[in-house]
Amino acid sequence: MSITITSLARSLMAADRLANPLHVLRRRMFANSADTMTIVDKASGVRCLCNVGSYHMFGETWYSHVYDVPGLPIRPDDIVLDIGANQGFFTCYAASKGAIVYAFEPVPALYERLMLNVAKNGFAHQVTAIQCAVSDSDQPAEMLVSKSFGGGQSTINPVFARKIGLVSGEHIKVHCKTLPQIFAEYGIPSVRLCKIDVEGAELRLLSTLRPEHLEQIQGFAMEYHPGSYDLRSLIKLLLDWGTHQVSLMDERPYTGDVLHLISTAALESAFGKAEPSVVELTA
């Protein structure tokens, strides 16, 4: 059997939120990780085709809300960036709330699945999908493609690959863009939420941002990966910005460590001048 007791418990807890819980449970119990399944959210009717091994990504996005930044709900016509979009779970989540989404995914098979899920949910007019990685350079990079978790551990960071024991797999060349290039190329005036899941490349990605770019981004939600870089360097970078507050820094052994930031301007807009409850960090 390809399912653990913990995974079974999570499947059962999510069953009342799914329109097809029996299909999901059967696939979780009897299918291989690389096989496909369709997950249908009962409330919205959104359906996502995905690898069985990536089932938890749908649940952590739609039901655990790991990428929701407190005080910064996604609203209709907000612009959202999904960097490391995988098969489109967060892209479809944001689009279902009426957002305009720019989704970035470099792995060809995952990009095709992303496009399929966007199209079959009727979100094509809201979503611009780009087949590339986002990093600190626009030069092509070598990516090691992981088969585990539906390709969710694919990385351009060799340190992260060694850390998770990803020593074998398909090596591909992927196109890259920087965030400043993305703002300029697509004429993006402001971003409500920038979601980042790039498997150890987040410090490189964020290092390209300048004050004029930070003013355009109201919030960040990202996985962070201690051991792939010096975590103190990441925290120092965020604190040195002086523009964003850390609202959450959460260690989640199952879904991955998650960091939320919200701009001071967005906080003042959401709460007036009231003192927000945030996590204070020092470099």
- The ordered string of helix (H) and strand (E) elements is HHEEHEHEHEEEHEEHEHHEHEEH
- Unreliable stretches (pLDDT < 50, length at least 5) are 274-280
Shape: globular
Radius of gyration: 18 Å
Number of helices: 11
Please explain how this structure is put together:
This protein is an alpha/beta fold and 283 residues long. Helix 5 links the parallel strand 4 and strand 5. 32% of the residues lie in helices and 21% in strands. A 7-stranded mixed sheet has the order 5-4-3-10-11-13-12, sandwiched between helices. It contains 11 helices and 13 strands. The chain is globular, with a radius of gyration of 18 Å.
Provide a compact summary of the structure.
This protein has 283 residues and is of the alpha/beta class. Helices cover 32% and strands 21% of the residues.
List the helices and strands and how they pair.
Elements (H helix, E strand, L loop, with lengths): L4 H10 L6 H10 L5 E5 L6 E5 L3 H8 L16 E5 L5 H8 L3 E5 L3 H13 L6 E4 L2 E2 L6 E5 L12 H6 L6 E5 L1 E2 L1 H8 L6 E4 L5 H5 L4 H4 L4 E5 L7 H11 L2 E7 L7 E6 H8 L12
Parallel strand pairs: 3-4, 3-10, 4-5, 6-9, 10-11
Antiparallel strand pairs: 1-2, 7-8, 11-13, 12-13
Fill in the keyword field for this structure.
283 residues, alpha/beta, two-stranded antiparallel sheet, globular
